[in-house]
Design goal:
It contains six helices and four strands. It has 229 residues and is α+β, with helices and mostly antiparallel strands. It has a four-stranded antiparallel β-sheet. Strand 3 and strand 4 form a beta hairpin. Helix 2 packs across helix 5.
Length: 229
């Protein structure tokens, strides 16, 4: 419902529609948050804040641009090396940005995070909190398969190469399959569903992830091109 009277400049209408009222409440909430965040600032600091904010945003953009440039230069050099390795392996040219690795995994939708961390770390479950109990207590029962959701993760071979692979990928820690057994690669037409093991071996040899991290760490150091920001 809205008023039929002409609006008065600088004054809210006497009657608001449901949409106008929701907007007014949202604006009031945002205003209270802003006031709370600015209470600790002096008047001079409040006046300077917009300019400082713009400078900070500009600095963030410059950092993002520098990182993008570093990654682009790294890619232009090392993707060619990866292509040569893949051609030696397969005998054909493969584009690492188009070829993809697929990994199947099962997500336990009911598992507690601390239980998961304890399990992969080899510790006994539920030791993180002595108060942890099931309520009501339950006896041993068959595994509830409905707790698990089948997932499929995909990444380009270039992305996967930059992430690296640990030396536990061949382990059956996450039974009944290891990472290698649960993964396959589609290199190109006619080369789909290929085993991931040979590619993982290449990635470990090149160690691109560690090299990229070292490059970024140097750039963000005190004397680096990004450290000055």
């Amino acid at each position: 419902m809205t008023t039929s009277l002409p609006p008065v400049r600088g004054r809210a209408p006497l009657l608001l529609s449901s949409t106008q009222w929701a907007q007014k409440e949202a604006l009031s909430h945002l205003s209270s948050i802003v006031e709370a965040n600015f209470n600790s600032l002096s008047e001079a600091q409040k006046l300077n804040y917009p300019a400082l904010y713009r400078r900070a945003q500009a600095a963030y953009k410059e950092v993002d641009d520098e990182i993008a440039q570093i990654k682009a230069e790294f890619k232009s050099t090392h993707i060619a090396i990866l292509k040569r390795k893949l051609k030696t392996l397969l005998g054909v040219d493969v584009d690492p940005e188009q070829a993809r690795i697929y990994t199947r995994y099962r997500e336990n939708t009911e598992e507690d995070l601390f239980e998961y961390m304890a399990r992969i770390g080899g510790a006994s479950p539920a030791e993180h909190d002595p108060k942890f109990t099931f309520s009501p207590s339950r006896g041993i029962r068959a595994l509830d398969e409905s707790r698990f959701v089948e997932r499929l993760r995909s990444a380009s071979l270039w992305e996967a190469a930059c992430e690296n692979f640990s030396y536990r990928t061949g382990s059956v820690l996450l039974k009944p399959y290891s990472y290698e057994q649960a993964s396959h690669i589609d290199y190109a037409t006619g080369l789909t569903g290929q085993p991931a093991g040979p590619f993982i071996t290449i990635v470990r040899t090149l160690d691109l992830g560690a090299k990229l991290k070292h490059l970024l760490d140097a750039a963000t150091g005190v004397s680096g091109c990004i450290g000055r920001y």
